[in-house]
Backbone:
Protein backbone atom coordinates (compact mmCIF):
# COMPACT_ATOMS: atom_id res chain seq x y z
CA UNK A 1 0.00 0.00 0.00
CA UNK A 2 1.06 3.59 -0.40
CA UNK A 3 0.51 6.45 2.02
CA UNK A 4 -2.41 8.82 1.74
CA UNK A 5 -1.17 12.15 0.38
CA UNK A 6 0.23 14.63 2.87
CA UNK A 7 2.03 17.95 2.96
CA UNK A 8 5.72 17.83 3.73
CA UNK A 9 8.15 20.26 5.29
CA UNK A 10 11.78 19.90 6.29
CA UNK A 11 12.53 22.69 8.77
CA UNK A 12 16.02 23.91 9.57
CA UNK A 13 15.37 24.89 13.18
CA UNK A 14 13.48 23.45 16.13
CA UNK A 15 11.36 26.61 16.28
CA UNK A 16 10.30 26.14 12.66
CA UNK A 17 9.46 22.49 13.34
CA UNK A 18 7.27 23.38 16.31
CA UNK A 19 5.59 26.17 14.35
CA UNK A 20 4.81 23.73 11.54
CA UNK A 21 3.28 21.27 14.01
CA UNK A 22 1.24 24.06 15.60
CA UNK A 23 -0.02 25.19 12.20
CA UNK A 24 -1.28 21.70 11.43
CA UNK A 25 -3.87 21.88 14.21
CA UNK A 26 -3.14 18.43 15.59
CA UNK A 27 -3.11 16.66 12.25
CA UNK A 28 0.63 16.82 11.68
CA UNK A 29 3.26 14.23 12.62
CA UNK A 30 6.98 14.36 13.11
CA UNK A 31 9.03 11.98 10.98
CA UNK A 32 12.56 11.11 12.11
CA UNK A 33 13.81 7.61 11.28
CA UNK A 34 10.38 6.62 10.03
CA UNK A 35 10.80 2.99 11.05
CA UNK A 36 7.64 3.03 13.17
CA UNK A 37 5.73 5.77 11.36
CA UNK A 38 6.22 4.68 7.75
CA UNK A 39 4.64 1.24 8.27
CA UNK A 40 1.60 3.04 9.70
CA UNK A 41 1.51 5.41 6.73
CA UNK A 42 2.04 2.63 4.19
CA UNK A 43 -0.79 0.59 5.69
CA UNK A 44 -2.90 3.76 5.94
CA UNK A 45 -3.39 3.22 9.68
CA UNK A 46 -2.16 6.79 10.12
CA UNK A 47 -3.15 9.60 7.77
CA UNK A 48 -1.45 12.80 8.92
CA UNK A 49 -2.09 15.88 6.85
CA UNK A 50 1.48 17.07 7.31
CA UNK A 51 4.83 15.42 7.89
CA UNK A 52 7.47 17.49 9.64
CA UNK A 53 10.82 15.93 8.72
CA UNK A 54 13.30 16.62 11.54
CA UNK A 55 16.29 14.85 10.01
CA UNK A 56 18.12 18.08 9.29
CA UNK A 57 17.67 19.64 12.71
CA UNK A 58 20.82 19.98 14.85
CA UNK A 59 19.71 17.14 17.13
CA UNK A 60 22.28 14.45 16.32
CA UNK A 61 24.54 14.87 19.33
CA UNK A 62 25.37 11.92 21.59
CA UNK A 63 26.81 13.20 24.87
CA UNK A 64 28.07 10.84 27.55
CA UNK A 65 28.00 13.26 30.46
CA UNK A 66 28.44 12.83 34.19
CA UNK A 67 24.78 13.48 34.78
CA UNK A 68 23.61 11.08 32.17
CA UNK A 69 23.61 10.02 28.53
CA UNK A 70 22.02 12.68 26.39
CA UNK A 71 20.84 11.64 22.93
CA UNK A 72 19.42 14.15 20.48
CA UNK A 73 16.20 13.29 18.70
CA UNK A 74 17.81 12.06 15.48
CA UNK A 75 20.56 9.94 17.00
CA UNK A 76 20.26 6.59 15.19
CA UNK A 77 20.01 3.33 17.11
CA UNK A 78 22.91 2.01 15.03
CA UNK A 79 25.11 4.96 16.05
CA UNK A 80 24.50 4.23 19.73
CA UNK A 81 25.47 0.59 19.19
CA UNK A 82 28.82 1.67 17.81
CA UNK A 83 29.67 3.94 20.73
CA UNK A 84 32.37 2.55 23.02
CA UNK A 85 31.54 5.20 25.62
CA UNK A 86 27.91 4.08 25.77
CA UNK A 87 28.97 0.43 25.96
CA UNK A 88 31.17 1.23 28.95
CA UNK A 89 28.80 3.45 30.93
CA UNK A 90 25.30 2.49 29.73
CA UNK A 91 25.55 -1.19 28.79
CA UNK A 92 21.85 -1.87 29.35
CA UNK A 93 20.98 0.42 26.45
CA UNK A 94 23.38 -1.45 24.17
CA UNK A 95 21.94 -4.79 25.26
CA UNK A 96 18.43 -3.53 24.55
CA UNK A 97 19.17 -2.00 21.14
CA UNK A 98 20.75 -5.26 19.94
CA UNK A 99 17.24 -6.73 20.08
CA UNK A 100 15.59 -3.90 18.17
CA UNK A 101 14.67 -4.81 14.61
CA UNK A 102 17.60 -5.44 12.30
CA UNK A 103 20.65 -3.55 11.14
CA UNK A 104 18.63 -2.15 8.25
CA UNK A 105 16.09 -0.56 10.61
CA UNK A 106 18.64 0.54 13.21
CA UNK A 107 20.52 2.51 10.57
CA UNK A 108 17.60 4.95 10.34
CA UNK A 109 15.51 4.31 13.46
CA UNK A 110 16.14 6.68 16.34
CA UNK A 111 16.24 6.10 20.11
CA UNK A 112 13.90 9.03 20.78
CA UNK A 113 11.54 7.89 18.06
CA UNK A 114 11.13 4.53 19.72
CA UNK A 115 10.25 6.22 23.01
CA UNK A 116 7.74 8.56 21.39
CA UNK A 117 6.08 5.69 19.51
CA UNK A 118 5.68 3.93 22.86
CA UNK A 119 5.03 0.39 21.70
CA UNK A 120 4.37 -1.58 24.91
CA UNK A 121 7.00 -4.17 24.02
CA UNK A 122 9.64 -1.74 22.80
CA UNK A 123 13.08 -2.73 24.06
CA UNK A 124 14.40 0.84 24.20
CA UNK A 125 11.35 1.89 26.19
CA UNK A 126 11.92 -0.92 28.70
CA UNK A 127 15.56 0.06 29.04
CA UNK A 128 14.52 3.68 29.63
CA UNK A 129 11.99 2.67 32.29
CA UNK A 130 14.52 0.49 34.12
CA UNK A 131 17.49 2.86 33.79
CA UNK A 132 15.50 6.03 34.30
CA UNK A 133 15.26 8.66 31.61
CA UNK A 134 13.96 12.16 31.03
CA UNK A 135 12.68 13.63 27.81
CA UNK A 136 13.21 17.21 26.72
CA UNK A 137 10.05 18.43 25.03
CA UNK A 138 9.78 21.71 23.13
CA UNK A 139 6.38 23.28 22.48
CA UNK A 140 5.18 26.59 21.11
CA UNK A 141 5.08 28.19 24.55
CA UNK A 142 7.53 26.25 26.71
CA UNK A 143 10.21 23.63 27.03
CA UNK A 144 9.53 20.94 29.59
CA UNK A 145 11.28 17.88 30.96
CA UNK A 146 9.32 14.73 31.66
CA UNK A 147 10.36 11.51 33.35
CA UNK A 148 9.75 8.45 31.20
CA UNK A 149 7.29 6.97 33.69
CA UNK A 150 5.15 10.09 33.36
CA UNK A 151 5.66 10.37 29.62
CA UNK A 152 4.46 6.92 28.67
CA UNK A 153 0.77 6.65 29.41
CA UNK A 154 -0.33 3.47 27.72
CA UNK A 155 -0.59 1.60 24.46
CA UNK A 156 1.08 3.88 21.88
CA UNK A 157 -0.02 6.86 23.97
CA UNK A 158 2.20 9.47 25.51
CA UNK A 159 2.02 12.74 27.32
CA UNK A 160 3.19 14.56 24.17
CA UNK A 161 0.91 17.22 22.70
CA UNK A 162 0.48 17.32 18.91
CA UNK A 163 2.34 20.62 18.66
CA UNK A 164 5.33 19.46 20.70
CA UNK A 165 8.67 18.00 19.62
CA UNK A 166 10.88 15.78 21.74
CA UNK A 167 14.37 17.11 21.13
CA UNK A 168 16.39 14.80 23.36
CA UNK A 169 16.36 11.98 25.90
CA UNK A 170 18.70 11.83 28.86
CA UNK A 171 19.30 8.41 30.39
CA UNK A 172 20.16 8.41 34.08
CA UNK A 173 23.56 7.27 35.17
CA UNK A 174 24.04 3.82 36.63
CA UNK A 175 24.56 3.62 40.41
CA UNK A 176 27.98 5.07 41.12
CA UNK A 177 28.77 4.69 44.82
CA UNK A 178 32.32 3.89 45.97
CA UNK A 179 33.11 0.20 46.31
CA UNK A 180 30.06 -0.74 44.30
CA UNK A 181 30.11 -2.59 40.99
CA UNK A 182 27.25 -2.68 38.51
CA UNK A 183 26.02 -5.33 36.12
CA UNK A 184 23.16 -5.22 33.63
CA UNK A 185 21.16 -7.78 31.67
CA UNK A 186 18.43 -7.73 29.05
CA UNK A 187 16.44 -10.73 27.83
CA UNK A 188 13.47 -11.06 25.58
CA UNK A 189 11.41 -13.84 24.12
CA UNK A 190 10.11 -13.49 20.60
CA UNK A 191 8.89 -16.08 18.16
CA UNK A 192 11.68 -15.26 15.72
CA UNK A 193 14.92 -13.33 16.04
CA UNK A 194 14.16 -9.69 15.43
CA UNK A 195 10.41 -9.95 16.05
CA UNK A 196 8.63 -7.75 18.54
CA UNK A 197 9.03 -9.20 22.01
CA UNK A 198 6.31 -11.32 23.57
CA UNK A 199 7.90 -10.46 26.87
CA UNK A 200 11.14 -8.83 27.89
CA UNK A 201 12.96 -8.22 31.16
CA UNK A 202 15.83 -5.93 32.09
CA UNK A 203 17.87 -5.44 35.24
CA UNK A 204 20.58 -3.21 36.63
CA UNK A 205 22.14 -4.68 39.80
CA UNK A 206 24.74 -2.98 41.97
CA UNK A 207 26.72 -5.10 44.45
CA UNK A 208 29.14 -4.36 47.28
CA UNK A 209 32.56 -5.97 47.73
CA UNK A 210 30.97 -9.04 49.25
CA UNK A 211 28.61 -9.49 46.36
CA UNK A 212 25.51 -8.43 48.24
CA UNK A 213 22.99 -6.51 46.19
CA UNK A 214 22.96 -2.83 47.11
CA UNK A 215 20.48 -1.56 44.52
CA UNK A 216 18.27 -3.34 42.00
CA UNK A 217 16.38 -1.87 39.09
CA UNK A 218 14.18 -4.47 37.40
CA UNK A 219 11.42 -4.13 34.83
CA UNK A 220 9.34 -6.10 32.34
CA UNK A 221 7.58 -5.35 29.08
CA UNK A 222 4.85 -7.19 27.23
CA UNK A 223 2.42 -7.73 30.08
CA UNK A 224 0.57 -4.47 29.92
CA UNK A 225 0.14 -1.23 28.06
CA UNK A 226 3.62 -0.07 28.97
CA UNK A 227 6.80 -1.47 30.56
CA UNK A 228 6.83 -1.40 34.37
CA UNK A 229 9.35 -1.56 37.16
CA UNK A 230 8.89 -4.49 39.55
CA UNK A 231 9.26 -2.95 43.00
CA UNK A 232 8.43 -6.20 44.78
CA UNK A 233 11.20 -8.04 42.94
CA UNK A 234 13.66 -5.24 43.61
CA UNK A 235 13.10 -5.16 47.36
CA UNK A 236 13.23 -8.96 47.58
CA UNK A 237 16.87 -9.09 46.46
CA UNK A 238 18.37 -6.14 48.34
CA UNK A 239 21.06 -7.00 50.89
CA UNK A 240 21.61 -10.55 49.72
CA UNK A 241 23.84 -12.44 47.35
CA UNK A 242 22.03 -13.68 44.30
CA UNK A 243 21.59 -17.34 43.57
CA UNK A 244 19.08 -19.42 41.64
CA UNK A 245 16.87 -19.83 44.68
CA UNK A 246 16.72 -16.13 45.50
CA UNK A 247 16.16 -15.12 41.90
CA UNK A 248 13.32 -17.62 41.59
CA UNK A 249 11.64 -16.63 44.83
CA UNK A 250 12.02 -12.90 44.15
CA UNK A 251 10.49 -13.30 40.71
CA UNK A 252 7.69 -15.47 42.05
CA UNK A 253 6.92 -12.96 44.75
CA UNK A 254 6.93 -10.10 42.27
CA UNK A 255 4.68 -11.83 39.79
CA UNK A 256 2.21 -13.19 42.29
CA UNK A 257 0.78 -9.70 42.47
CA UNK A 258 0.14 -9.46 38.74
CA UNK A 259 -3.30 -10.85 38.09
CA UNK A 260 -4.37 -9.41 34.80
CA UNK A 261 -2.82 -8.00 31.68
CA UNK A 262 -2.32 -8.11 27.98
CA UNK A 263 -2.74 -11.16 25.79
CA UNK A 264 -3.33 -11.73 22.12
CA UNK A 265 -3.10 -14.43 19.48
CA UNK A 266 0.69 -14.48 19.77
CA UNK A 267 0.57 -15.21 23.47
CA UNK A 268 -2.12 -15.34 26.13
CA UNK A 269 -1.63 -13.27 29.26
CA UNK A 270 -0.84 -16.36 31.34
CA UNK A 271 1.80 -17.42 28.84
CA UNK A 272 3.35 -13.95 28.72
CA UNK A 273 3.35 -13.79 32.51
CA UNK A 274 5.10 -17.17 32.74
CA UNK A 275 7.68 -16.12 30.17
CA UNK A 276 8.20 -12.73 31.81
CA UNK A 277 8.71 -14.36 35.20
CA UNK A 278 11.32 -16.72 33.76
CA UNK A 279 13.10 -13.86 31.99
CA UNK A 280 13.08 -11.87 35.23
CA UNK A 281 14.80 -14.71 37.09
CA UNK A 282 17.36 -14.87 34.29
CA UNK A 283 18.20 -11.18 34.21
CA UNK A 284 18.49 -11.07 37.99
CA UNK A 285 21.13 -13.78 37.89
CA UNK A 286 22.86 -12.47 34.75
CA UNK A 287 23.06 -8.88 35.96
CA UNK A 288 24.38 -9.99 39.33
CA UNK A 289 26.99 -12.23 37.68
CA UNK A 290 28.06 -9.38 35.41
CA UNK A 291 28.47 -7.16 38.45
CA UNK A 292 30.58 -9.67 40.37
CA UNK A 293 32.81 -10.82 37.51
CA UNK A 294 36.52 -10.52 38.19
CA UNK A 295 37.40 -8.17 35.34
CA UNK A 296 36.99 -4.50 36.04
CA UNK A 297 34.98 -3.69 32.94
CA UNK A 298 31.39 -2.76 33.48
CA UNK A 299 29.29 -5.85 32.78
CA UNK A 300 28.25 -6.50 29.21
CA UNK A 301 25.76 -9.22 29.84
CA UNK A 302 24.01 -11.12 27.11
CA UNK B 1 7.64 26.65 3.15
CA UNK B 2 5.11 23.87 3.55
CA UNK B 3 4.59 22.22 0.20
CA UNK B 4 0.97 21.52 -0.44
CA UNK B 5 0.15 17.88 -1.00
CA UNK B 6 -0.92 18.44 -4.58
CA UNK B 7 2.43 19.86 -5.55
CA UNK B 8 5.41 17.81 -6.57
CA UNK B 9 8.83 18.52 -5.13
CA UNK B 10 12.23 18.40 -6.76
CA UNK B 11 14.62 15.84 -5.38
CA UNK B 12 18.32 15.53 -6.15
CA UNK B 13 20.29 12.45 -5.20
CA UNK B 14 23.14 10.29 -6.39
CA UNK B 15 22.13 6.79 -7.34
CA UNK B 16 24.85 4.27 -8.14
CA UNK B 17 27.29 7.12 -8.57
CA UNK B 18 25.15 9.07 -10.99
CA UNK B 19 23.47 12.38 -10.12
CA UNK B 20 19.72 12.17 -10.69
CA UNK B 21 16.91 14.64 -10.40
CA UNK B 22 13.23 13.91 -10.11
CA UNK B 23 9.85 15.42 -9.41
CA UNK B 24 8.06 13.49 -6.70
CA UNK B 25 4.95 13.70 -4.63
CA UNK B 26 5.92 13.85 -0.96
CA UNK B 27 4.25 10.50 -0.37
CA UNK B 28 6.31 8.63 -2.96
CA UNK B 29 8.43 5.92 -1.36
CA UNK B 30 12.12 5.74 -2.22
CA UNK B 31 11.71 2.17 -3.46
CA UNK B 32 9.02 3.29 -5.90
CA UNK B 33 11.16 6.20 -7.07
CA UNK B 34 14.07 3.86 -7.76
CA UNK B 35 11.90 1.35 -9.59
CA UNK B 36 9.38 3.54 -11.40
CA UNK B 37 11.21 6.81 -12.02
CA UNK B 38 14.74 5.46 -12.47
CA UNK B 39 13.79 2.03 -13.84
CA UNK B 40 16.16 0.35 -11.40
CA UNK B 41 13.92 -2.63 -10.84
CA UNK B 42 16.52 -4.76 -9.10
CA UNK B 43 15.24 -3.46 -5.76
CA UNK B 44 12.00 -5.26 -4.94
CA UNK B 45 8.83 -4.40 -3.06
CA UNK B 46 7.73 -7.03 -0.57
CA UNK B 47 5.84 -6.17 2.58
CA UNK B 48 5.97 -2.37 2.45
CA UNK B 49 6.32 -2.20 6.20
CA UNK B 50 9.95 -2.92 6.77
CA UNK B 51 10.05 -6.55 7.86
CA UNK B 52 10.79 -8.61 4.74
CA UNK B 53 13.92 -6.77 3.60
CA UNK B 54 13.33 -7.09 -0.16
CA UNK B 55 13.62 -3.32 -0.58
CA UNK B 56 17.04 -3.00 1.11
CA UNK B 57 19.48 -0.55 -0.48
CA UNK B 58 22.59 1.24 0.76
CA UNK B 59 22.33 4.87 1.88
CA UNK B 60 25.83 6.28 2.17
CA UNK B 61 26.93 2.67 2.50
CA UNK B 62 24.47 1.81 5.30
CA UNK B 63 21.74 -0.73 4.58
CA UNK B 64 18.26 0.77 4.90
CA UNK B 65 14.65 -0.14 4.07
CA UNK B 66 13.77 1.89 0.99
CA UNK B 67 10.06 1.20 1.61
CA UNK B 68 10.35 3.11 4.88
CA UNK B 69 11.98 6.17 3.40
CA UNK B 70 10.28 8.80 1.30
CA UNK B 71 11.97 9.67 -1.98
CA UNK B 72 12.03 13.29 -0.90
CA UNK B 73 13.98 12.31 2.22
CA UNK B 74 16.77 10.97 0.02
CA UNK B 75 17.40 14.49 -1.28
CA UNK B 76 21.12 15.14 -1.07
CA UNK B 77 21.94 11.52 -0.28
CA UNK B 78 23.83 8.74 -2.08
CA UNK B 79 21.99 5.53 -2.79
CA UNK B 80 23.44 2.24 -3.99
CA UNK B 81 21.18 -0.42 -5.42
CA UNK B 82 22.10 -3.93 -6.56
CA UNK B 83 22.66 -2.54 -10.05
CA UNK B 84 25.41 -0.35 -8.65
CA UNK B 85 27.39 -2.92 -6.70
CA UNK B 86 29.70 -3.87 -9.54
CA UNK B 87 30.60 -0.28 -10.31
CA UNK B 88 31.85 0.21 -6.76
CA UNK B 89 34.60 -2.39 -7.10
CA UNK B 90 35.54 -2.44 -10.80
CA UNK B 91 38.89 -4.13 -10.23
CA UNK B 92 37.30 -7.12 -8.50
CA UNK B 93 34.88 -8.16 -11.18
CA UNK B 94 34.71 -11.44 -13.01
CA UNK B 95 34.78 -11.57 -16.79
CA UNK B 96 30.99 -11.57 -16.66
CA UNK B 97 31.09 -8.32 -14.71
CA UNK B 98 30.02 -9.74 -11.36
CA UNK B 99 31.36 -8.88 -7.94
CA UNK B 100 32.88 -11.70 -5.85
CA UNK B 101 29.63 -11.84 -3.89
CA UNK B 102 27.45 -12.06 -6.98
CA UNK B 103 29.77 -14.66 -8.45
CA UNK B 104 29.72 -16.73 -5.26
CA UNK B 105 25.91 -16.60 -5.20
CA UNK B 106 25.96 -18.03 -8.70
CA UNK B 107 28.56 -20.67 -7.85
CA UNK B 108 26.86 -21.79 -4.62
CA UNK B 109 23.34 -21.74 -6.09
CA UNK B 110 22.31 -19.23 -3.46
CA UNK B 111 19.16 -18.14 -5.26
CA UNK B 112 16.06 -19.77 -6.69
CA UNK B 113 13.31 -17.31 -7.50
CA UNK B 114 15.70 -14.41 -6.98
CA UNK B 115 13.23 -12.12 -5.25
CA UNK B 116 15.33 -11.66 -2.12
CA UNK B 117 18.65 -11.83 -3.95
CA UNK B 118 19.29 -8.13 -4.56
CA UNK B 119 18.57 -7.45 -0.89
CA UNK B 120 20.75 -10.37 0.20
CA UNK B 121 23.60 -9.02 -1.92
CA UNK B 122 23.19 -5.52 -0.51
CA UNK B 123 23.04 -6.78 3.08
CA UNK B 124 25.97 -9.13 2.53
CA UNK B 125 28.00 -6.32 0.99
CA UNK B 126 27.32 -4.14 4.04
CA UNK B 127 28.20 -7.06 6.31
CA UNK B 128 31.52 -7.82 4.62
CA UNK B 129 32.57 -4.19 4.51
CA UNK B 130 32.15 -4.05 8.28
CA UNK B 131 33.38 -7.58 9.03
CA UNK B 132 35.59 -9.07 6.29
CA UNK B 133 36.05 -12.34 8.18
CA UNK B 134 32.67 -13.36 9.60
CA UNK B 135 31.76 -16.69 11.10
CA UNK B 136 28.76 -18.52 9.70
CA UNK B 137 26.85 -17.34 12.77
CA UNK B 138 27.78 -13.74 12.08
CA UNK B 139 26.67 -14.13 8.46
CA UNK B 140 23.30 -15.49 9.58
CA UNK B 141 22.92 -12.63 12.01
CA UNK B 142 24.01 -10.04 9.45
CA UNK B 143 21.53 -11.30 6.87
CA UNK B 144 18.70 -11.81 9.37
CA UNK B 145 16.94 -8.71 8.11
CA UNK B 146 16.10 -10.27 4.74
CA UNK B 147 13.62 -13.12 4.36
CA UNK B 148 14.15 -15.88 1.80
CA UNK B 149 11.27 -18.25 1.13
CA UNK B 150 13.05 -20.51 -1.35
CA UNK B 151 16.52 -21.55 -0.30
CA UNK B 152 16.53 -22.24 3.41
CA UNK B 153 19.51 -19.84 3.63
CA UNK B 154 22.22 -22.50 3.77
CA UNK B 155 23.66 -21.81 0.33
CA UNK B 156 23.34 -18.07 0.85
CA UNK B 157 25.53 -18.37 3.93
CA UNK B 158 28.01 -20.52 2.02
CA UNK B 159 28.15 -17.99 -0.80
CA UNK B 160 28.85 -15.11 1.57
CA UNK B 161 31.57 -17.09 3.36
CA UNK B 162 33.13 -18.08 0.04
CA UNK B 163 33.10 -14.49 -1.24
CA UNK B 164 34.57 -13.27 2.04
CA UNK B 165 37.36 -15.81 1.79
CA UNK B 166 38.14 -14.83 -1.80
CA UNK B 167 38.10 -11.14 -1.00
CA UNK B 168 40.48 -11.65 1.90
CA UNK B 169 42.82 -13.74 -0.22
CA UNK B 170 42.75 -11.22 -3.03
CA UNK B 171 41.41 -13.95 -5.28
CA UNK B 172 38.94 -11.71 -6.97
CA UNK B 173 38.75 -10.64 -10.58
CA UNK B 174 38.50 -13.28 -13.25
CA UNK B 175 37.72 -16.32 -11.12
CA UNK B 176 35.97 -18.11 -13.88
CA UNK B 177 35.39 -17.10 -17.51
Residues:
Amino acid sequence: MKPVAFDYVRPATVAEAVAALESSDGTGKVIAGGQSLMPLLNMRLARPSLLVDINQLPLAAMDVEDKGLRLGAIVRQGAVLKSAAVARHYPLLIQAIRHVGHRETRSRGTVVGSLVHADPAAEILLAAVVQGARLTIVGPKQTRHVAIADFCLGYLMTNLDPDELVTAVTFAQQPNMPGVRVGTAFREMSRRHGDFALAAAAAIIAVDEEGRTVTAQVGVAGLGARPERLAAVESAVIGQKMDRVLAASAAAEGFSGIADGFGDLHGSFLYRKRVAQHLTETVLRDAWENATRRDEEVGHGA
Amino acid sequence: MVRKMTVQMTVHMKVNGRAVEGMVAPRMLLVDFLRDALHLTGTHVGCEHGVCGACTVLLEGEPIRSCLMLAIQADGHQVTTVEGLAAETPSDLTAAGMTPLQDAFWECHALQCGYCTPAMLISAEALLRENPDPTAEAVRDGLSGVICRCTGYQQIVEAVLLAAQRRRAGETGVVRP
The first strand of chain B starts at residue 9 and ends at 15.
